[in-house]
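Sequence in, structure out.
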Amino acid sequence: MTELPVARTIREQVADRIRADVLAGRLAEGTNLREQALAQQYHVSRAPIRDALLQLTQEGLLIAKPNCGVRVAAVHEETQELLVGLRREIEVFALRKWFPTKDDQTVERFQATMDRMRAACESEDLGTFVEQDMALHRLNVELSGNPDLVAIWLPIVSRMMLHYSRHSCMMESHLEHVAIVEAIRMGNEEAAVAALEANIQ
């Protein structure tokens, strides 16, 4: 039975775990998610499971239909192209917002995420790799200081990553993130933007 950490609320922990499983491909497109089975898996009541499924449905990762339950969503090719464009706009906007005021602590936060990403890459831990990929991009958006921007960004990136097959080559993706962080470290805003846009595909 899976044990959950206690640092966050049960709903948040369950939502994080389900999200990670979906984005890592452990829960495939169309998979039905049943409250009772999830409650047993995470050793919690059905109430936080229900809340977590509602949250992930609002993010676009899951689809809920009357009398059909909840299942992992699919993203069509046309929608994927739209999501890529929207995500680039948001993340570039965020980066340009905070870049002029970056400091050593900012660089250290990005580097810490990169270190965890590389460790996951070397151990071929796809689930952790996907989590750290999202963590790095989320840090960029959060540094803008606008919580509404994060709220807009999260469902976009979550749905986009449903079919993020580029993670099949983790080292290639890792090196793309290295380019982003190195440009930030060097204080080259245009290079950071170019590396960011190249990574979001």
